[in-house]
Amino acid sequence: MKSILGSFIISLGIALASPAHASTSERAVSAVLETIGSMTGASAPASAPLKGEIEIGFSPEGSGLELVLKTIQSARTTIDVMAYSFTSAEVTSALRAALKRGVTVRVVVDQNQNFKGDSRLAAAALSTLQLAGAQVRTISVYPSAHDKLILVDGKHSQTGSFNYSKAAATRNSENVLVIWNNAEVAKIYAAHFMRNWKQAQAYTGR
């Protein structure tokens, strides 16, 4: 891998050093970058139209958790959750209430973060949701599945630094961002969710 990348870098340097062949240089640069991207799994950043409404909350002031719960409570059909740490009783309760309303709930959480050491809180939260009808999976294919994301009804996206935990709500400095009524943004996040969902394993209880 290093030797191949080294060859690319040398080729790139030669191309850039040839002003008489500017168009050839541009094509060479493009080819090198595309090849490196395919080798590293990199993809171009996604973009979406600016529309809808943005709402922001923070912790430990309290508006962060309030906004997370508001997002869940707005759901009418679907909720998809990606979580690094998942131990919050409030978030679990809100998702359970959504399930009772007939909302389809899927949750994928980081395996190592939630089940290393004392895993009682995570196990209680995830088992509660599973028993209530949620589809729950854990993911371990990455060193850290550090996503914090809630997608609602294919059009609302909640993200930010906020873990779904008591510490995030009451002790840590955290931020929560919700993009309301932007299906294009939600579609981009949904593709990311599905990648991890397919790589995850069904939660079997603890």
Please provide a brief summary of the model.
Helix content is 47%, strand content 21%.
Protein topology:
Layout: H1 2-16, H2 22-40, E1 53-59, H3 63-73, E2 78-83, H4 89-100, E3 104-110, H5 111-115, H6 120-132, E4 135-139, E5 149-152, E6 156-160, H7 166-170, E7 174-180, H8 183-199, E8 201-202
Helix pairs in contact: 1-2, 3-4, 4-6
The N- to C-terminal Cα distance equals 41 Å
Total helices: the number is 8
SSE-based structural type = alpha+beta
Q: How would you state the average pLDDT, rounded?
A: 84
Mind describing the biggest β-sheet? 8 strands, mixed
Low-confidence stretches: 1-22
Q: Radius of gyration over alpha carbons?
A: 21 Å
| Secondary-structure element order, N to C | HHEHEHEHHEEEHEHE
> Helical percent range?
40-55%
Number of strands: 8
Q: Into which percentage range does the β-strand content fall?
A: 15-25%
Inertia-based shape: globular
Widest sheet: strand order? Answer: 1-7-6-5-2-3-4-8
Task: Give your account of this protein's structure.
Residues 1-22 have low confidence and may be disordered. This protein starts with a helix and ends with a strand. It contains 8 helices and 8 strands; from the N terminus they run H-H-E-H-E-H-E-H-H-E-E-E-H-E-H-E. The protein has 206 residues and is of the alpha+beta class.
Considering the chains and any ligands shown, give keywords for the structure:
21% strand, eight-stranded mixed β-sheet, 206 residues, alpha+beta, disordered N terminus, 8 strands
